[in-house]
């Protein structure tokens, strides 16, 4: 897998399913412009960015995706391009469609609260808003355009997607001692040498090496699966000015 593929997978793993897709079935229906016509309100149409097996990805979804990146404490936080955001949302929608075919028990409020409590302490930028307090956390969330309930539901979905991916790909993976030895000698030792540091003995970091190799294999399986889903389904990116059929 090339560097571009690796960046795509890291970005997907980092923010996988953070934001809910808007759920609008068709621009102008439901809560769209037609729904507002009876009230006399003027509502801007939400431009369609992509169509994934009939599901619409809207411009507002890209905006949400970009804003939700502020809640990632770890991983690659480099600003994504518009094209990368669209690709990320397409991948996520493909996963959500598969999840609907294999329903799982919902993540509980207690589980969401536990993760969000850790998150509040893990975002460096959050310290300036005193996120350890409820008022500070609410201020930080609002500064990025979300309510506490919106963030909670997006985080719940994120947890459900990560659980789905782990159950589908991770459980059957076995990392051999030979693979761990190779990673230690071929990757870690040169990396420490480049920094002029003495590497820890392999046994001391065996668990971390195993986790890295597990995640690499999950990433590869996930990437292959998403490529297959795209090939089997109908994915269309809508260019500016292009009319939908």
SSE inventory with pairings:
Elements: H1 3-15, H2 33-37, E1 48-52, E2 55-58, H3 59-68, H4 82-101, H5 109-120, H6 134-143, H7 148-170, H8 177-194, H9 206-232, E3 235-237
Antiparallel strand pairs: 1-2, 1-3
Give Rg in angstroms. Answer: 21 Å
Return the structural class.
mainly alpha
Describe the strand arrangement of the main beta sheet, using strand numbers.
2-1-3
Count of structural domains: 2
Q: Based on DSSP secondary structure assignment, what is the total number of beta strands?
A: 3
Largest sheet: 3 strands, antiparallel
- Strand portion, in percent? under 5%
Task: Report on the architecture of this protein.
The protein contains nine helices and three strands. It is mainly α. It has two domains: 3-171, Triger factor/SurA peptide-binding fold; 174-233. The chain has a three-stranded antiparallel sheet with strand order 2-1-3. A hairpin with a 2-residue loop joins strand 1 (48-52) and strand 2. Helix 3 crosses helix 4 (82-101) and helix 8 packs across helix 9. The radius of gyration is 21 Å and the shape is globular.
Brief synopsis:
The protein has 245 residues and is mostly helical.
Notable traits:
globular; 245 residues; 2 domains; mainly alpha; Triger factor/SurA peptide-binding fold; three-stranded antiparallel beta sheet; 3 strands; 9 helices
